[in-house]
Amino acid sequence: MLYNKKNKLLAFVVIVLLVTAQPAFAMHIMEGFLPMQWCGIWYAIALPFVILSYRFLRKRVEQNPKLKVLIALSAAFVFILSALKLPSVTGSSSHLTGTTLGTVLVGPWAMPLIGVIVLLFQALLLAHGGISTLGANVFSLSVAGPFVAFGLLKLLPRLRCPEILTLFLATFCGTMATYIATSFQLAIVFPDPSVGIWGAAIKFLSVFAITQVPLALLEGVITVLVVKVLKAQGVGLKLFTLQKEMQK
Questions:
Q1: 7, 101, 108, 179: which could form a disulfide with 150 (CB 3.0–4.6 Å)?
Q2: What is the per-residue pLDDT across 164-204, written as a single tens digit (0 to 9) for each?
């Protein structure tokens, strides 16, 4: 691997995240926080996405076994970034998601299954999230975020948006979509007595906005750098969703 300035900058950003992060509860909904009926509802909603994700990945790997490398890279990226917790000024916490990179490399349908694997490891090994809330966390992290990012990856190039800006905006909006989804998941269960679900959702969003917006911007920068490094090394160049759209 060539050690140019971009590589060094990427390494510096990752090291800073590793040093400043704390292994504790992050924005994943923790065990026991949702009533069991809502845990079941979110399992039922997330399960079809996970099944389709498994079928998608199995078919893609059969067609191209080398894709396993990019799947593993995508999973590792999500695991590391989403496990790094930064405390919020409100006493809560926020974290990066890392799901847009996998969306670019192997497509949004790869992310639900990757999300299940990542979230299970985090719940069992890091006490991060939970088993009962797995369905809700899979939906927000691995369905809402990746598909919003994918939509922008498809739309923005058609609007003549530059490639780097497209990737940055898709990452930013995908990350924020995860937190918006989580806020509504919590608001549905804990509506505000006076202003209802929408008011509660706004309150939950405001709790995380101060820390999550800067983190989403940071993740946009990190994702752009990682994609540029991978493309410079010729890693799975034809598999990049972004490049396919730019060529149309």
A1: 108
A2: 999 999 999 999 999 889 888 888 988 888 888 888 888 88
